[in-house]
């Protein structure tokens, strides 16, 4: 197997030309996304360079406490992103707490089980395995949870009259909100379902591509990619289901009333 090819910063600068072209197209067609594109690219560069330095130090330290702290920081940022991606959010601590909690629970359960029982590094919490794996699982779970909550809150608010009519007719809160719960669950599952459907045929995922480029046997890369996809699918299911059920519980009460007063007003 040939050695992997190292990249220079000039190589990266050359690759960024394609983003610059996209920005120029946005300016020419007055799409208005050039600033967002520039800001997103700069943010990505800074974050990746920073995390590269942090991970190098964490891997060298091999400390469970440091690994846990970094994982908690990742959870905090994931919770904030789930909260920010919703047009209508739960009020108070529930707004950021539910998204962070559902994402953390799904990602943590799946990651811990896979590290301790499937991959089996020594020690099982080895940051070289735990943090990259947790990051991939957490990021995809975050996407599913944010889409599910945004769909649920928006649909309940838009169809509040229909839901309240069902409640007046004697339906329970779960029966009245059931169609919207199913819509929210489908929205949360869609990204991972679409990804799994085309993986290997239309696209070769980033992890598998990176392993192959670094010289790993393609068959071994396939095994790891399948493992990751199974873990991501499981974590997404756990997180989405938990977030939707708890949010529906929060937006209703034991007297089977719709409590949209527990939603924040939509930001202008």
Characterize the structure shown:
The chain has 268 residues and is mostly helical. The chain folds into two domains: 1-61, no CATH class; 63-262, no CATH class. 76% of the residues lie in helices and 0% in strands. The chain has ten helices and no strands. Helix 2 (17-29) runs antiparallel to helix 3 (34-61), helix 7 crosses helix 8 and helix 8 (173-198) packs antiparallel against helix 10 (218-250). The N and C termini lie far apart (56 Å). The mean pLDDT is 89.
Sequence-ordered SSE layout with sheet pairings:
Layout: H1 9-15, H2 17-29, H3 34-61, H4 64-84, H5 93-119, H6 127-158, H7 160-168, H8 173-198, H9 206-213, H10 218-250
What can be said about the biggest beta sheet?
none
Total number of strands: 0
Q: What pattern of helices and strands is seen along the backbone?
A: HHHHHHHHHH
Q: Note the gap between the termini.
A: 56 Å
Mean pLDDT equals 89
Global shape: globular
Number of helices: 10
Overall tally of domains:
2
Radius of gyration: 21 Å
Helicity range: over 70%
Structural class: mainly alpha
Task: List low-confidence stretches.
Answer: none
Strand content: under 5%
Features:
268 residues; mainly alpha; globular; 2 domains
Task: Write a brief caption for the model.
This protein is mostly helical.
């Amino acid at each position: 197997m040939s050695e992997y090819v190292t990249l220079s910063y000039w190589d990266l600068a050359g690759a960024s030309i394609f983003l610059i072209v996209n920005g120029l197209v946005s300016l020419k067609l007055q799409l208005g996304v050039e600033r967002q594109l520039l800001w997103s690219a700069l943010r990505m560069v800074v974050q990746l360079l920073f995390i590269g330095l942090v991970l190098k130090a964490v891997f060298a330290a091999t400390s469970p406490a440091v690994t846990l702290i970094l994982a908690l920081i990742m959870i905090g940022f994931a919770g904030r992103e789930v909260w920010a991606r919703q047009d209508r959010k739960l009020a108070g601590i529930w707004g950021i707490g539910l998204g962070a909690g559902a994402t953390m629970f799904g990602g943590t359960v799946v990651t811990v089980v896979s590290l301790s029982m499937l991959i089996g590094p020594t020690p099982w919490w080895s940051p070289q395995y735990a943090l990259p794996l947790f990051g991939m699982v957490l990021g995809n779970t975050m996407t599913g949870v944010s889409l599910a909550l945004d769909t649920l809150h928006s649909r309940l608010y838009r169809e509040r009259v229909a839901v309240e009519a069902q409640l007046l007719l004697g339906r329970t809160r779960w029966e009245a909100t059931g169609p919207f719960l199913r819509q929210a669950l489908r929205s949360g599952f869609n990204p991972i379902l679409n990804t799994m459907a085309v993986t290997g045929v239309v696209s070769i995922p980033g992890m598998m591509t990176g392993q192959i480029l670094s010289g790993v046997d393609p068959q071994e890369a396939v095994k790891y990619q399948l493992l990751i996809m199974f873990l991501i699918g499981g974590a997404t299911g756990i997180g989405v289901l938990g977030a939707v059920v708890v949010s529906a519980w929060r937006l209703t009460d034991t007297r089977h009333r719709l409590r949209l007063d527990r939603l924040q007003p939509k930001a202008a």
